[in-house]
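Contributing new records

If you add data, match the layout below exactly. Sequence lines come first and carry their own label; structure lines follow with theirs. Keep one chain per record. Anything else will be rejected by the validation script.
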Amino acid sequence: MNKKSKVFLYLQNFLGRIAIIFIAPLYFIIVKILFYRIQNLKEIRRQCESEFARHKGSWIVCANHLTMIDSFILGYASFSLIGHITGFKKLPWNLPERRKFQSNILLAVLCYLAKCIPIDRGGSREKIKKTLDKCIYLLRTGQSIMIFPEGGRSRTGRINKESFSYGVGRFVKEVEDCKVMCIYMRGNKQENYSAIPAWGEKFSVQIEVFSPERIEGSGLQAQREYATQIIERLARM
């Protein structure tokens, strides 16, 4: 990754650190308005805090994907309001699909300040490579990434073990000292994929941390093997 891209990421991170003082309370207000609840919320946050304290380096947070605001709800479930502000570095970067927000200027600004790196799914290999290179750079500098290994919202409501993205496998292969945190979240009323969860939804969240078995070799085959390990772990949760 070139120096210009690194400077832009540094600037985005700096502005996000300032803006989180205003954005985080907005997140929590929205959650309250939608009356979303997390089962055992305090316990989930304590578990996340404990794991992040145990490993000070980078994390790859892998979650199942059912709605367009999963990362938003997972952030609320994982960090308290104070945690968002004082532990900004621990907040993972997200990879939203560019076309979902680029036409709305306000949403685009919010995503920029909320540690988002837009990805062009179905785009050229060059564009996707640039995005993945940014993520690898962030992981190597101690930042964390949240990714949905399935590559999109599950159409069946269950983890698809046959068709998934290998991108997460590349992260594991390229950054050896990072940890993987698998999070399985599901609303009690959620039977299939949707744009957003139902009003008043109550979510159950499970968290497991594991170190993928190291794979010999390189290239696409190794990426696939790492991604498979993570997908299978999510499927068992």
